[in-house]
């Protein structure tokens, strides 16, 4: 555990990096914000674009699945005076500079080695913090936004940074947002924009009838309840929970006593059906409430908000998600909700596919190949969810075909494996580069795109690199 002083020091160091960046922003006329197509990328862009609007600075925005050479050429062709990269860019610093772009990068991915330097690079790895858990892309963007404002004008945007961090699952390892995220949370809380408390972590607390919340729970999967409406209704009735009157009751409609009795019964049932302690721990944790949003809407809860955003950008509707982040509660929110229904269905179908096809174990990794059946933009989410119920002693790799005919790889590990030496960002970038692809990300979650014919070779390389990572650490400990 880091102490508060250490975290505060890192926070100040990152803020110092933002100062010169903010000065650059004031100097330029045409600005382009470039971000990533997921919840963290959208909230990152939403934070920066809002901060720019508040200063009456014009901007344009572009979103990419990954920042490869082609994407960078598009960015260069745009011809902006200054480019702000958010939630991506750290892996491509050299290429960004080679193109002669005037750039600020606010990211949290593991930086690739580079000789060149952009105008400013705001990244937790540069101050000794972990980009997988301590701060997200929207977090570093929030620090930049703070530097752009007079006084505390942008502190309310900390709420969006919390949504981004939750979207990147940064609260999963310890059941609460750790590290630098904690300070951002406090800023948001002082600004009256966000609150937090310990609660049941199941999805849909704001929007679903309680029995549906249980029935739809995939992460964690509740044996005997998930996927079984009748069982969920019977379970609640047995412990005396009224399901509804005029309207179905949602989790937020239950009294403290009722909530406590559901939690107790869930834990008891979980224990009886052999749910692992990891799963039981994941049932309860810190949850984050966006105080300026209406109760009973997706936007009120950081986890539901982030899923709503993922349902837009990952399907090519980043503009819809960005507008929601920037306050549109009419047309864009309606569109996002429609996309959310489809997204949920896609995730359920994806999980079914994995359980039918199965996961193949190798020596140190395991994998499944979804072919064309799961879109490459959500394969990472499906991999992460399937992994919850799979063998957790080796990282999981998932393959999906991209529209361009390449092979997308998503990899997920556990924090225990990371402590044992696993670094998926390193493993994927090395193995992908060896077969002519590109990869990167975080120690616990990373991705790559590789040529389709190189799948077997790539798997062997990954198996070898991960074996080496895990044994290296073992040697050091002996
Ligand atoms: O690109 P980006 O950094 O936004 O994505 C982070 C990814 O890492 C997310 O897809 C998230 O699901 C994954 N992750 C994870 N487990 C963690 C931390 C992050 O699966 N503990
Ligand atoms: O796409 P997926 O969710 O599997 O990505 C996991 C993590 O790896 C994300 O943080 C993503 O930004 C990163 N990634 C990357 N380079 C790639 C693919 C994914 O840095 N080529
Ligand atoms: Zn991110």
The share of residues in helices is 40-55%
Text of the CATH class of the largest domain? Alpha Beta
Radius of gyration: 22 Å
- Please state roughly what percent of the residues sit in beta strands, choosing from under 5%, 5-15%, 15-25%, 25-35%, 35-45% or over 45%: 5-15%
Give start-end ranges of low-pLDDT stretches.
none
CATH fold descriptor of the largest domain: inorganic pyrophosphatase (n-terminal core)
Please, could you describe this protein's structure?
- The protein has 478 residues and is α/β, with parallel strands linked by helices.
- It folds into three domains: 4-175, inorganic pyrophosphatase (n-terminal core) (Alpha-Beta Complex); 200-346, no CATH class; 358-477, Roll (Diaminopimelate Epimerase, Chain A, domain 1).
- 47% of the residues lie in helices and 14% in strands.
- The chain has 18 helices and 13 strands.
- It has helices at 4-27, 39-54, 69-78, 93-98, 137-148, 158-167, 180-190, 210-215, 229-238, 256-272, 277-283, 302-313, 318-325, 331-357, 379-388, 415-419, 424-434, 455-477; strands at 31-36, 60-64, 82-86, 103-106, 120-122, 194-200, 284-290, 360-361, 366-369, 396-401, 407-412, 438-441, 445-450.
- The protein binds cytidine-5'-monophosphate (2 copies) and zinc ion.
- One cytidine-5'-monophosphate binds at residues 66, 91, 109, 380, 410, 438-442, 445-449.
């Amino acid at each position: 555990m880091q102490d508060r002083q250490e975290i505060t020091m890192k926070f100040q160091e990152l803020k110092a990096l933002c100062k010169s960046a903010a000065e650059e922003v004031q100097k330029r006329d045409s600005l382009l914000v470039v971000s990533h197509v997921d919840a963290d990328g959208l909230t990152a862009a939403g934070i920066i674009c809002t901060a720019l609007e508040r200063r009456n600075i014009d901007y344009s925005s572009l979103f990419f699945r990954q920042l490869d050479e082609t994407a960078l050429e598009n960015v260069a062709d745009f011809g902006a005076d200054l480019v702000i990269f958010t939630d991506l860019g750290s892996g491509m610093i050299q290429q960004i500079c080679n193109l002669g772009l005037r750039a600020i990068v606010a990211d949290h991915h593991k930086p690739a080695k580079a000789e060149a330097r952009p105008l400013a690079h705001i990244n937790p790895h540069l101050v000794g913090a972990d980009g997988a858990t301590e701060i997200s892309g929207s977090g570093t963007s929030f620090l930049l936004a703070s530097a752009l404002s007079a006084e505390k004008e942008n502190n309310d945007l900390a709420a969006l940074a919390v949504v981004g961090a939750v979207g990147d699952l940064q609260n999963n390892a310890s059941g609460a947002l750790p590290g630098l995220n904690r300070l951002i949370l406090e800023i948001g809380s002082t600004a009256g924009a966000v609150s937090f408390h310990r609660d049941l972590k199941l999805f849909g607390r704001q929007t679903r009838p309680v029995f549906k919340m249980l029935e739809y729970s995939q992460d964690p999967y509740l044996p005997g309840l998930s996927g079984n409406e009748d069982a969920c209704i019977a379970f609640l009735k047995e412990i005396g929970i009224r399901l509804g009157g005029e309207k179905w009751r949602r989790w937020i409609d239950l009294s403290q006593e009722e909530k406590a009795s559901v939690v107790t019964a869930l834990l008891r049932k979980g224990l009886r059906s052999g749910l692992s302690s990891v799963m039981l721990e994941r049932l309860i944790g810190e949850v984050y409430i966006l105080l300026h949003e209406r109760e009973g809407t997706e936007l009120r809860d950081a986890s539901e908000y982030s899923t709503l955003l993922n349902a837009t950008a990952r399907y090519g509707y980043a503009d819809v998600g960005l507008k929601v982040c920037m306050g549109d509660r009419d047309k864009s929110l309606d569109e996002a909700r429609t996309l959310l229904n489809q997204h949920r269905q896609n995730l359920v179908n994806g999980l079914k596919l994995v359980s039918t096809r199965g996961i193949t174990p190798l020596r140190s990794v395991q994998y499944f190949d979804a072919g064309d059946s799961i879109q490459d933009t959500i394969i990472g989410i499906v991999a992460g969810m399937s992994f919850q119920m799979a063998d957790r002693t080796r990282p999981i790799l998932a393959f999906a075909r991209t529209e361009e005919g390449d092979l997308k790889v998503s990899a997920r590990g556990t924090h225990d494996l990371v402590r044992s030496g696993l670094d998926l960002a390193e493993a994927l970038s090395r193995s992908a580069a060896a077969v002519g692809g590109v990869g990167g990300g975080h120690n616990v979650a990373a991705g790559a795109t590789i040529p389709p014919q190189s799948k077997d070779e790539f798997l062997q390389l990954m198996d070898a690199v991960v074996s080496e990572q895990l044994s290296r650490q073992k040697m050091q400990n002996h």
